[in-house]
Fold:
Amino acid sequence: MLELSRVVKSFGAVVALRSGSLRMQPGSIHALIGENGAGKSTLVKIVAGLYRRDAGEFRLNGEEVDFTSTAQSKSAGIAVIYQEPTLFPDLSVTENVFMGRQPVGRFGRIDRKAMRREVESLFQRLGVRIDPDRPAEGLSIADQQVIEIAKAVSLDARVLIMDEPTAALSGVEVDRLFAIARSLRDEGRALLFISHRFDEVFDLCDTVTVMRDGSYIATTPIAETTVDELVRQMVGRDVTDLFPKIEAEIGEPLLEVEGLSSAGVFHDISFTVRAGEIVGLAGLVGAGRSEVARAVFGVDGYDSGSVTLEGRPVKKGDPARAMLQGIALVPEDRRKQGLVLESSVARNITLSIRNQLAKAGIITSGFENRAAKVWASRLEVKTTALSTVAATLSGGNQQKVVLGKWLATEPRVLIVDEPTRGIDVGTKAEVHRLLSELAGRGIGILMISSELPEVLGMADRVLVMREGRITAEIDRADATSENVMFAATHAQGAHS
Structure:
């Protein structure tokens, strides 16, 4: 149905795609995997009409195509469902599905009843319940994705591309999405599923294509490969230790949180992070973990309780003061909260230490580049130049830049919120190694993660939150997937 062969795409001196190849069959779900920067997104954007290829072949139903716009791609029967859908929040669900192609009835007026009937029929066909008349604002990411899928089906798209669709979904929402994907496959459509989660790839997909460094590596039926083999193909080597935990000497308490409460958000939160210790903060999405981190750092306020660092009070609601005292926060959303996307790599890394770089109130690009180069080199940020705009980096390299920005402050306590979300397996191992090395140097680390293997593999102690409360504290030796999940889903967890 869709075939790309030896496709090339460059942006100036940067080659984003050296030799991209992909074959999609009707009635099949095809996985596309690779490290950040492997060329997956560039390939998808060529299919979607956002980019034009420089060389290579692109065929749809056997005929060569060369899209110059997204409209051409859509009219050819291709739909892309992105990780973060872009709906009009003030319009209804029905209006979003029919945006730009509303049916017209008598006297040239929009036939709203026909639109609503069609949307009801689409949702029934997809097996979901969403009110067609409600505004899009406030819908969950999962429901927004379903609306995008309904839009694609109403356009009779034969090729659907799902780019990291499960990154922000709960288990139940993932199950619903997969059920919809399978029903579309059974109708004879071709689906492309892009993900970093191997369990989902093996659960959902029929075939998998691996890319590395902008080039096609291999395509294999899912039943004929293994996770280890795919990892080898993705990174070009064996990743023998995804959780390189270095045993560090755990010292005196650094961060002490006592009785922290915020009405309706979290209640009576108390914990300690010691020098050289990685404390994992686990729990389901919505348990209040990120909110606690933001309150400790001073981004958000709280109603009662106290935060101290090395015995000194940390002022409530004052992140600048928290930084000066030695606390750093790597936020969950690196693009919106961690980076200035339009600025260079050098500018982003030095954002938190600009006062230290200034000489007589002036910061030169030389000062900036020298300071940034240290961290860009230590973290192995893959970029052609420090002047490269942060928005153009892969997700894994953006995460490294955010880490560099905060490590440049030489913190005593580092809070990392979902440090490896959306980044590939090779970069995950690098981030884990870095966290372990930092703990070995006596830094206290509070790591928030929704990935249980990451929590179990890296944490010296696991704190589990449920509905704004800590329900369990479990030592590394006693922590298992079962007891962490039990504490995350039950009101009373067992303290160890």
User: Anything to note?
Assistant: Residues 492-496 have pLDDT under 50 and may be disordered. The two ends are 56 Å apart (CA to CA).
